[in-house]
Write a structure and sequence with these properties.
The protein is α/β, with parallel strands linked by helices and 434 residues long. It has 15 helices and 17 strands. Strands 1-8-7-6-5-4-3-2 form an eight-stranded parallel beta sheet. Strands 11, 12, 13, 16 and 17 form a five-stranded mixed beta sheet that branches. A two-stranded parallel sheet has the order 9-10. Strand 6, helix 5 and strand 7 form a beta-alpha-beta unit.
Length: 434
């Protein structure tokens, strides 16, 4: 569940241990962290488990070093190294440049090889920003980000406010803000990232980028469960203040229109939600809260007033429902039931998984294949649940693998080469090239 639209980009400019305890968890809920390669060795292990990160090349990384960072989970890398243009996937590369490099952006091949620009500024200039944006838009494809990185402490503190004052002239410009200049205090002004007193409040750096056309100033919010397969739970509303509380506390806080005030989820019922991710849509007027139910009943807390209904939109279905059913059966199924036997007899379960895997390979029609895949998923999920592995765990592995630039070789194992009589070329995957 990565973040596409960014209110700002936090730059980790010191060791995580030097920051207030709440700083990195709050930031991880709303933005990826830009980690300098000079700090990466020690800093990456200290980031919150849910944090996304980019790498800022400040040590003249080699191509192999850059690829290793991407393979290990960095979503993007920002560098001045122009040799990366042809070797790092465009969607993973941000070109760092200054006013002296503007001519580079007139080259369509360069722009097509990047996902954004990290542009060095002391004070943002509307005409200069327009020139950079025009160059980035000249090449078709996904919109490319324009990150503005300050060249001094004073510039860092002024930049978010300066961009706000430029209004439409600064649209799509994303301020890079050093984490040591941020505060986890509750701001008094949610519409502007004003200093408090000599630091920038994390909460208002985010809320000041939102806009509402509603007379009450609220934002439509979709809480999404991350406990299993991503599932929408319902529709609620948030105010700028409730969003700030959610960012800083990590507990879901919404706005109750009936009570005309903050709704701290679970305050009376105990059915709390831990906020892992807050995203806003492409118009910055609606929000998605990625949450994990963490009340007394955990995943069974749900969200809806209707008993036994997890989502206000009805049953979840599919793999999420299968996982929930298997967890319930493991705890409650009577002795002698088939699913209970599968949990209690691992050799029987192993035999069924191997049997169904073979039938998936042998299926000849679409209907047969769908049926056999469903059977294989059932038995595989039974083994996963029996061993405490969730769909969320599996999804995390898939997400991590999707970030790899270096391909897996994927050679067939010798036992299957022999069983199927594969030739040398048939058994070979890929060379593991970049």
């Amino acid at each position: 569940m990565s973040i596409s639209q960014l209110a700002f980009l936090p730059l980790l400019d010191s060791e995580p241990s030097s920051l207030a305890t709440e700083t990195l968890p709050a930031l991880a809920r709303i933005a990826p962290l830009l980690v300098p390669s000079s700090l990466a060795a020690s800093a990456l292990t200290q980031l919150p488990p849910t944090a996304d990160h980019y790498i800022l090349d400040d040590t003249d990384l080699s191509l192999d070093e850059a690829i290793r960072y991407l393979d290990k989970g960095a979503r993007r890398i920002a560098s001045r190294n122009k040799t990366f243009l042809a070797s790092v996937p465009a969607e993973r590369f941000i070109l760092r440049c200054s006013r002296d490099d503007l001519s580079l952006l007139s080259n369509a091949q360069v722009v097509s090889s990047i996902s954004g620009v990290l542009y060095e500024v002391s004070e943002p200039n509307a005409d200069e920003l327009a020139q950079v944006r025009t160059a980035l838009k000249a090449v078709s494809g996904r919109p490319r980000d324009l990150f503005l990185i300050p060249d001094s402490l004073d510039a860092a503190l002024r930049l978010p406010v300066s961009l706000k004052s430029l209004g439409k002239s600064a649209v799509s410009s994303i301020a890079v803000v050093p984490t040591s200049y941020m505060s986890t205090e509750m701001p008094s002004d949610f519409a502007s990232p004003s200093l408090l007193p000599d630091k920038l409040p994390i909460a208002s750096l985010f809320t000041s980028c939102l806009r509402s056309d509603r007379t009450d100033g609220l934002f439509v919010t979709i809480p999404v469960s991350l406990s299993s397969v991503t599932t929408p739970l319902g529709l609620v509303y948030s105010s700028a203040e409730s969003i700030a509380h959610s960012i800083l506390s990590g507990n879901a806080v919404y706005y109750s229109r009936s009570r005309n005030g903050l709704w701290r989820k679970g305050e009376t019922s105990g059915a709390m939600q831990r906020v892992e991710r807050i995203r806003f849509d492409c118009d910055a007027d609606a929000l998605e809260f990625g949450v994990v139910e963490c009340g007394p009943q955990g995943e069974k807390e749900g969200f809806c007033h209707v008993p036994e209904q997890t989502s206000c939109f009805g049953g979840v279905g599919g793999l999420a429902e299968l996982e929930a059913t298997l967890k319930k059966r493991m705890a409650e199924a009577p002795a002698g039931s088939y699913t209970k036997r599968l949990f209690d007899e691992p050799l029987l379960l192993r035999a069924k998984i191997m049997e169904e895997a073979g039938e998936v390979c042998d299926a000849t029609t679409a209907e047969e294949l769908a049926s056999e895949v469903a059977d294989l998923l059932y038995f595989t999920m039974t083994r996963a649940v029996a061993n405490g592995v969730s769909l969320k765990d599996v999804q995390a592995v898939l997400d991590k693998r999707s970030l790899k630039v270096t391909r897996r070789k994927g050679d067939a194992k010798p036992e299957w080469v022999e069983k199927l009589g594969l030739g040398v070329d048939q058994a070979k995957g890929v060379d593991g090239a970049k």
